[in-house]
Amino acid sequence: MIFYFSGTGNSLYIAKNISETQGERLVSVACEFDREDTVFEYELRENELLGFIFPVYAWGPPKIVTDFISKLRISGGKPYVFSVSTCGDDEGHTTRILKKALAGKGLQLDSAFTVIMPNNYIIGFDVDSKDVAEEKLRKAKEKLQTINSVIEKRQKGVFELTPGRFAGLKSAIVNPLFNRFGRSTKSFYATEECTRCGICEKVCPIHTITVKDKPVWGKSCTQCLACIHRCPARAIQYGNQTVRKGRYVHPDVI
Q1: Which terminus of the chain, N or C, has less C-beta within 10 A?
Q2: pLDDT score at 253
């Protein structure tokens, strides 16, 4: 069983590849929350895969992922647990945070990987150039071969991570601040180019967007920016920080 969370398709692409290669069921974390269960309980076979695939947000796992793990209950045999974090540059101590969350549920992380993918966080940054994005995607395909080989063999202790510089500082200070103050919806708005197509409402993983005359945002937000990147009219902005920025959706994910 492989759980994934994705906004613009990078992590979904990785998750689909591993799911198809390993013949494992793929489950959306966001869709599981639609069940509104207080506990997410799953029974696994001995040595069955238990994977977590997600993007890095401010050098940590998305809060929706750690919230999901906090409600997780695994029964049956002892699974082989792995994770894949996707990011534009480096993951900080994202995997350490995940490992600690899993340990709190009695689960040991057996292997973990970072896969560098095209950048999509355009608040304070911008998307990569076409050449840089294509090179990242090419290397990601190569990295997937390694990941699938390790997983198939159930190899333990393989941690191929990209923490980057000042990893501890970023994950210990920036990530908590991001989760507390950086997930506000107040700066989102739709310009006159909005056609009310409803795509933003459809792709929002936590259903915080409602399209009336224009999109209206609730209070909750994961900061996945799917609404911005997937708007065909480029009508959705975040303050003035995204107006002149590029847009990105993984080319193999609809």
Answers
A1: C
A2: 84
- Give all domains of the chain, ordered by start, each with its CATH number: 2-178 (3.40.50), 188-238 (3.30.70.20)
Which residues have CB under 8 Å from 196's CB, separation 6+? 211, 213, 214
Stretches where the chain sits below pLDDT 70 are: 254
Dihedral Cα 80, 24, 39, 105, nearest 10 deg: 10
Say how far apart CA 110 and CA 82 lie, in whole Å: 6
Amino acid identity, position 241:
Q
Count CB neighbours of 64 within 10 A. Answer: 20
Q: Where are the alpha helices (DSSP H) in the chain?
A: 10-22, 29-33, 63-70, 94-103, 130-152, 167-169, 175-181, 199-203, 226-230
pLDDT at 68: 97
Q: Which residues pair with 55 in a beta bridge?
A: 86
- Angle (nearest 5°) at CA 152 between 146 and 155: 80
**Long-range contacts from 148-154, C-beta under 8 angstroms, 24+ separation:** 148/17, 148/18, 148/21, 148/22, 150/82, 150/111, 150/113, 151/18, 151/22, 151/49, 151/51, 151/80, 151/82, 151/111, 152/21, 152/22, 154/47, 154/80, 154/110
Tell me how far apart the alpha carbons of residues 150 and 161 are, in angstroms, rounded to a whole number: 14
Per the CB < 8 A criterion, the answer to whether 231 and 199 are in contact is: yes
pLDDT at 228: 98
Helix (H, G, I), strand (E, B) or coil at 12: helix
Among the listed residues 34, 33, 26, the one whose alpha carbon sits nearest the alpha carbon of residue 3 = 26
Q: How much is the pLDDT for 109?
A: 98
